[in-house]
TrEMBL record:
<dbReference type="InterPro" id="IPR025943">
    <property type="entry name" value="Sigma_54_int_dom_ATP-bd_2"/>
</dbReference>
<dbReference type="Pfam" id="PF00158">
    <property type="entry name" value="Sigma54_activat"/>
</dbReference>
<keyword id="KW-0238">DNA-binding</keyword>
<dbReference type="GO" id="GO:0005524">
    <property type="term" value="F:ATP binding"/>
</dbReference>
<dbReference type="InterPro" id="IPR003593">
    <property type="entry name" value="AAA+_ATPase"/>
</dbReference>
<keyword id="KW-0597">Phosphoprotein</keyword>
<feature type="domain" description="Response regulatory">
    <location>
        <begin position="3"/>
        <end position="119"/>
    </location>
</feature>
<dbReference type="InterPro" id="IPR002078">
    <property type="entry name" value="Sigma_54_int"/>
</dbReference>
<dbReference type="Pfam" id="PF00072">
    <property type="entry name" value="Response_reg"/>
</dbReference>
<dbReference type="InterPro" id="IPR058031">
    <property type="entry name" value="AAA_lid_NorR"/>
</dbReference>
<dbReference type="InterPro" id="IPR027417">
    <property type="entry name" value="P-loop_NTPase"/>
</dbReference>
<dbReference type="GO" id="GO:0006355">
    <property type="term" value="P:regulation of DNA-templated transcription"/>
</dbReference>
<feature type="domain" description="Sigma-54 factor interaction">
    <location>
        <begin position="148"/>
        <end position="377"/>
    </location>
</feature>
<protein>
    <submittedName>
        <fullName>DNA-binding transcriptional response regulator, NtrC family, contains REC, AAA-type ATPase, and a Fis-type DNA-binding domains</fullName>
    </submittedName>
</protein>
<keyword id="KW-0547">Nucleotide-binding</keyword>
<dbReference type="GO" id="GO:0003677">
    <property type="term" value="F:DNA binding"/>
</dbReference>
<keyword id="KW-0175">Coiled coil</keyword>
């Protein structure tokens, strides 16, 4: 049962308040504290749906109680009462987090109305908080293919960054070597964002010929070039309402960069061969393994586009810089591989893990995954350091 705390140093008043409110609010339990200090000790141990507090009290005033409680339990709802009220005191109480302020002598009807409204507001906030928590948990349930495995400080820092930036629509530039997990970061940002119900469209800028990149990104109309036998929507249009992930953007041609810049500036795209402009609502996440500052200096990347893309920068370190994550990564890959093959997962003994941690992983996590698959197929159970020596060439 939910509880209400009455804080009042005059027992006659606290008794009247308890008597009246307990008749109106039969679903609540009531507790009385005789001063602010006693109330604070109670609040440190228990949760209350509402605190009704006098202001002028010995030991600890009602305003001090309000401030202290907001520090330790900011979700607590307060209704303040005072016979020595002025406008400044009332305003300060509301600024400090109180729901309402009532002057003495107390208008009982106003008090009952205020208390009921305060309880409704408090319950609504709790429901919203619970729903938000559930929603956040759902968002964090990223497709297993895109799980970020490890507990190293470097990875925790990335996860903290993702949690902070996902809620916004800020553009993100992810940097790091090939195979380090930039794609995982992009998918985690999308999955934890308000756009998670929308599409996540990936574009590998390095894999698309430069003469086709504009058509891929912005679409084209029939007859706009040889082979354009019908209208085709581009990746930006397909990602409308969601996220577009421009992987290896450092490999994009300068011509295409100019058009991407325009799309970011105006939130519009024009298909190749068309004068029509299409409005798009897209969050852009980009990634590169290149040093874009050097590319800018060499005239290969537009500085204005770089600044548009890099509102937030997240660097994904090489596996060699987070080797403490190797045991968890090996266990994760071994289980996934076993699930794919319909077999029981193989174990890796401590010496095998130690041997793997000695290697330099130039291919990063992608290379480690391939090595684990090889050892699962060829090694004993558990996989030993001897298996690592026999089947891994570094």
């Amino acid at each position: 049962m939910q509880k209400i705390l009455i804080v009042e140093d005059e027992k006659a008043i606290s008794g009247v308040l308890h008597s009246i409110l307990s008749e109106e609010l039969t679903d609540y339990e009531f507790e009385i504290a005789n001063d602010g200090l006693e109330a604070l000790k109670i609040l440190e141990k228990e949760d209350f749906s509402l605190v009704i507090s006098d202001i002028k009290m010995p030991k600890l005033s009602g305003t001090e109680l309000l401030k202290e409680t907001m520090q330790i339990k900011p979700e607590t709802t307060f209704v303040m009462i005072s016979g020595h009220a002025d406008i400044d005191t009332a305003v300060n109480c509301l600024k400090d987090g109180a729901y309402d302020f009532i002057s003495k002598p107390i208008d009982i009807n106003r008090l009952i109305t205020s208390v009921k409204n305060a309880l409704d507001k408090g319950n609504l906030q709790k429901d919203n908080k619970s729903l938000k928590s559930e929603n956040n948990q759902l968002k964090k349930k990223v497709n297993k293919k895109y799980q970020m495995i490890g507990n190293s400080p470097a990875l925790k820092m990335i996860q903290d960054m993702i949690e902070k930036v996902a809620a916004s629509d800020a553009r993100v530039l992810i940097t790091g070597p090939n195979g380090a997990g930039k794609e995982l970061v992009a998918h985690a940002i999308h999955a934890q964002s308000e756009r998670s119900k929308g599409p996540m469209v990936e574009v590998n800028c390095a894999a698309i010929p430069s003469e086709l990149i504009e058509s891929e990104l912005f679409g084209h109309v029939k007859g706009s070039f040889t082979g354009a036998i019908k209208d085709k929507s581009g990746k930006f249009e397909q990602a409308n309402g969601g996220t577009i992930f421009l992987d290896e953007i450092g490999d994009m041609s300068l011509v295409a960069q100019a058009k991407v810049l325009r799309a970011l500036q105006e939130s519009k795209v024009s298909p190749v061969g068309s004068d029509k402009e299409i409005k798009v609502d897209v969050r852009v996440v980009a990634a590169t393994n290149k040093d874009l500052h050097k590319e800018i200096a060499d005239g290969k990347f537009r500085e204005d586009l770089f600044h548009r893309l890099s509102v937030i920068e997240i660097h994904v370190p090489a596996l060699d810089d987070r080797k403490d994550d190797i045991p968890l990564l090996v266990e994760h890959f071994a289980k996934n591989i076993a699930d794919e093959q319909g077999n029981a997962a193989k174990k890796f003994d401590d010496k095998a893990i130690a041997a793997l941690k000695q290697f330099s992983w130039t291919g990063n996590i992608r290379e480690l995954r391939n090595v684990v698959e090889r050892l699962v197929i060829l090694g004993a159970n558990p996989v030993s350091a001897e298996d690592v020596a026999n089947f891994v060439r570094k």
